[in-house]
Predict the 3D structure of the following.
Amino acid sequence: MGTFALTLVFALIIAKLPNVYEATATILIPRSSLFALGLSIFCVLATEKLNPAIKTEMELKSLLPKGARIMGLIPRIEIASDARRDRRLAIFACVVCVVLCLALISVTSA
C-alpha cells in the first residue's frame, strides 16, 4: 500500500509539470502505477513465504519424523483488539488510496 501511495504522489508531481512533459506523464503514470501494484504484491507474497510459522497440518506432518503422531493442534488465537487494529489499518489504507486516486484524476483532467 505504501509503495502505491508514493507512486501516486510522484504521479501528481509529474502531472503538475509544464505541458512539455504531458506526453511523458501520460506514459509514466500507468507504468508507475502498475509497477507499484506489482511491487506491493511481491512484498506481500515474500512476507508470506518468509514467515516461519507452520500453517497447515500437512506441513507439520512433513516436518515430523515418520513414527511421530500429532496429539493435538493449537488453534490460532485472535484477540479482539488485534482484529480492530487490522480492520482500522485496512480502512485507513483504502481511504488514503481513494483520496490519492481522486487527486490524481482531478490533476490529470484539469
Notes: The chain has a mean pLDDT of 76. The chain has four helices and no strands. The CA atoms of residues 44 and 50 lie 10 Å apart.
